[in-house]
Structure formats: C-alpha cells, structure tokens
Design brief:
Elements: H1 6-10, H2 17-20, E1 46-53, E2 67-72, E3 79-87, E4 93-100, E5 103-108, H3 110-121, H4 125-128, E6 140-144, E7 157-158, E8 167-173, E9 186-193, H5 196-204, E10 207-220, E11 230-236, E12 243-248, E13 254-261, E14 264-265, E15 269-270, H6 276-279, E16 294-296, E17 307-308, E18 315-324, E19 329-343, E20 346-350
Antiparallel strand pairs: 1-9, 2-8, 3-6, 3-7, 3-9, 4-5, 4-8, 10-19, 11-18, 12-16, 12-17, 12-19, 13-14, 13-15, 13-18, 19-20
Length: about 350
C-alpha cells in the first residue's frame, strides 16, 4: 500500500496543517477543494509572435563612431510580454533605450541582460558572453529584459488604451566591428490581444497594473588603471526609483557587500550568502550561476512587497573585494516593479 493516505489518516485538526486544510465540511461555507472548486472565469486572450527586421545597415568599422538602430514594435497589439533579439553579441551593445511614445521608460545595459537572463531564465552565463574579436563571425539570440517582460500576461506591458504610446527599442552599438547588414539584426516580439469588452472598459476607466522592470547604475572606479587598486567602492543608488525586490551585480572579486537604505543597513554580508545557487529557487528565480550575487529586499523576486526606493534619500551599495582597478566599471541592476497607469489614451509609470 502506498503512502498517499497517510496525511489524511494522521490529520487531527490541529497544528500547521489545520491553518489551511480541513477534513470535514463546514456547513456555513461552500465546499472548496482542488477537485471540486469551480475555476474562475476570465476573458480569453490571443497570443502570437511578430518578427521585425532591422531597418538599416550598421557601419561599425573601427573608423566610425557608435551607431544606433531602432525597432518599432507592433502598435496594433494590446500587450507585449517578451522581445527576443537576434544580431550582434551582448558585449557589442552599449545600451538599449526602451521608449513608450517619446518617453524613455527604461535604459538597459549589457550587464542587465547578463544578470537578469541568468537569474530569471536560467541561461548559462557562457552563452551570453560575446567574442572580443573585432570581426562578427556569428549572430546571437537572447531575450531583452524590457519593462513588462513576464512569464504570464498579468505583469506584461499593456499597450491597449495608450493610443499614441507604442513601444520602440533604440539600440546603441560599439564601433570596431565589421559592418552589419539590416538582414543580420531582428527582433521577435511576443504579442497579445484582448477582448472588446476589456478594451471598452479601458477606454472609460483609469487602469493601474503592476509591471516587472529593472534600472541600472554604472559606477566608474576613480583613478587610472595604473593606480593601486581600491579595496572597496561605494555606489550611489539615488537614481533608482522603482519598487525594488532584489539587486544584482557581477561578482568582481567581491568578498562582502553592504546595502544602506535611509538610516538602516544590512551590515557586511559575505558573498557566499548572496550566491545565486543559494538564492534562486526559494526566491522564485531560475538561475544557478554563482557569479551573480543577489541581495534580496522582498519575499520573492518582483514581489510588490519590495522597498519603494523613490521614498528613500540615502541609498548606497558598498562592495568590498580584493581589487577595483582605477577606471574600471561596476554595474548594478536593481530589479522590481512599477505601476503602469493607462488613462485617456496615455501611459505613465510610477513606483
């Protein structure tokens, strides 16, 4: 005989089980169970993928300056939950500006792509590391962690109701690589449509939704590369204004990390306590790469119970390690949520 009856046999209406479970009916309540409870009826949505080719060739030879390429995402879809880029490698991109209408709502740096894709998608870090050769020998595909990227449509970017606020992605590339034709770059957009009933409701009401997002701070270590290395750096996080659930940074010989928020501080946390291998699954993340430390500020990744950084004045991250060479950079990615408000045909974001 199996053990599938043991839990029921040993249940005695007390202890931890009884808080959320029962074995006898309460006549004052409807019977609800995983087998008998009727599912919640929700409006259906349609999902699909749209491919957008690059609109211009890129002259990225060593004699040119950095160049840009803009992808205009579909304006006739109601929601967007993911964008997959195919083209140059991550380290050949300087930044990606996510624009809603004419407003830049997010600036994504290469380290944001590294750290978020490793921790959220479980992508091995090695597959995202681009070649340092000045010649493009192959293309690379990766998901862009845009505002509203989510595993379900609940936290996706809602474009419906924002009639003049279509999303676009402006890529800025480094120089020093061979020319790239328009055919070598493209994006594939995961799009969704909603029902007429929902659209009619959008047109008449103010809609507030939670979307997943991130913001980046890049700190340049003072001094020249020939200067003696610093043992610790203090990174100002004052530009971060989202509701933060966790903070990511590449492990650059860091041995302790300390987060200061207002008058509170974590104290020095050994890097071993922050490794992804100890903090991923229980924190609702997928990664297991030890090179991406995670400082948790909420109960789970992208939780709305994160810390609203916009309400704090003193926000700093102190990283202690073996060496921080002068002139080098340290990139920090703050992940969390924002409120997307749709009203009167316009879209805005707030913490």
């Amino acid at each position: 005989m199996g053990i599938d009856n043991v839990a029921i046999k040993t249940f005695n209406s007390s202890g931890a089980q009884s808080v959320c479970r029962a074995n006898e009916a309460d006549e004052t309540k409807l019977i609800e169970s995983q087998f008998l409870t009727k599912c919640t009826t929700e409006y259906i949505n349609g999902s699909g993928m749209t491919h957008i080719q690059g609109n211009s060739a890129l002259d990225l030879s060593p004699t040119t300056t950095s160049q840009t390429q803009t992808f205009y995402l579909p304006s006739d879809c109601d929601a967007i939950s993911d964008v997959i880029y195919t083209g140059t490698t991550v380290d050949q991109i300087i930044k990606i500006e996510v624009k809603v209408g004419n407003l830049v709502v997010q600036t994504i740096k290469p380290d944001d792509i590294y750290t978020r894709n490793v921790t959220e998608l479980g992508v091995p870090l090695s597959t995202l590391t681009g070649s340092t050769s000045p010649v493009v020998t192959a293309t690379q595909s990766f998901s862009i962690p845009i505002i509203g990227r989510a595993k379900n449509v609940r936290n996706s970017f809602l474009q419906a109701g924002g009639t003049t606020n279509a999303m676009s992605l402006k890529f800025t590339y480094v120089s020093g690589i061979n020319s790239v034709s328009a055919a070598d770059t493209s994006v594939c957009v995961m799009t969704h449509q909603i029902t007429k009933t929902e659209k009619d409701f959008l047109a008449k009401n103010i809609i507030n939704r939670v979307v997943n997002t991130s913001q980046n701070v890049t700190f340049t270590v003072p001094g020249l590369s020939t200067d003696p290395s610093l043992n610790a750096v203090t990174i100002d996080l004052s530009s971060i204004n989202i509701n933060v659930s966790h903070i990511l940074f590449p492990n650059s010989n860091v041995t302790k990390a300390e987060l200061i928020l207002g008058n509170d501080r974590t104290g020095n946390i050994p890097i071993g306590c922050l490794s992804t291998v100890h903090n991923s699954e229980i924190f609702s993340l997928a990664g297991s790469d030890k090179d991406i430390p995670i400082i948790k500020t909420a109960d789970s990744a992208f939780s709305t119970a994160g810390i609203p950084f916009s309400r704090l004045n003193n926000k700093k991250l102190i990283l202690t390690g073996g060496s921080f060479a002068g002139g080098s950079t340290v990139s920090v990615t703050a992940c969390g949520t924002q409120i997307q408000t749709t009203v009167g045909g316009s879209i805005s974001f707030s913490s």
